[in-house]
Amino acid sequence: MTTFTPPDNHFPAAPFIKEIGRGKKGARSMTREDASQLYSAMLDGRVSDLELGGILLSMRIKGESVEEIAGFLDAAEASFTLLPQPPGPFAPVLIPSYNGARKMANLTPLLALLLAKEGVPVLVHGVSRDVGRVTTAEIFEAMGLPVANDAAGLALAHSLRQPAFMPIGVLAPKMYRLLSLRRVLGVRNSTHTLVKILQPYAGPALRLVSYTHPEYLEMLAAYFMTAAPAGRGDAFLMRGTEGETVANANRANQIDWFHDHQRTLLVPRDAPTDIVAPAPEGRDAGATAEWISRALRGEEPVPASIAEQVAQCVQASRRLGSDGR
What's the predicted TM-score (pTM) here? Predict the structure, then answer.
């Protein structure tokens, strides 16, 4: 007979699994407080592997409510030391990069570099490698941009007007452990949503947030309108370009701006078109890095949709910077 040995300081997760594990129609959502307690225990390793698998798969089937995602994020941001606010007139811009590119060139680094060129402090956080995809970290590496492995490295990048890439394993190591369980379970879990709405700075910041599935548009919109803590800054929400938060080079993505618990349509979605914007010939990191370098020198045209995204980010970052000081 197999015996179960709970970890030290074991958190009793069974009552939560009983409620969230009844399937998509029968499950009941947790309160924000309960979700925070449960996710905190998951981050601290106080939930057994058996229970952890049950929780992750239950949430995958049920889907997160606004209260649950809010409670999870409360616990997540309490699990690491917040970053110091960078000096200057702009609030930092956060660009999560957890997907990379598979079919199109990954132009997230172009977005980050154009913002940094304007003097905006830019933090790109995400995974360094992803099998079958070209990550932002790989393109940064091909361009000779260093990785920020601590707050000092981040501050140096900001002072040099360079975007900083910080691996999620450095920024939020406890979250990285849960994120990595995708390789074990074969499916994503709630942490993949949380890292895209993470706000790791002590002061206000502008979060660029993307979604892939339509149901996440309204769930995340409701979070930013009703549950996001005051004083944490603004968010731009858009459908991802292959999961990345950079505008599609061929046509503008709709961008909704969330500020002071209000929602404003910032950029309307372009109508379908057969026009294809200039892009790197190859999709690999080296070819993409070379094309981005030419675009920064003015030798290649910056796609109009990305230029518009940059302009809107600069304006919102300046506004937040002024409000936060």
Answer: 0.94
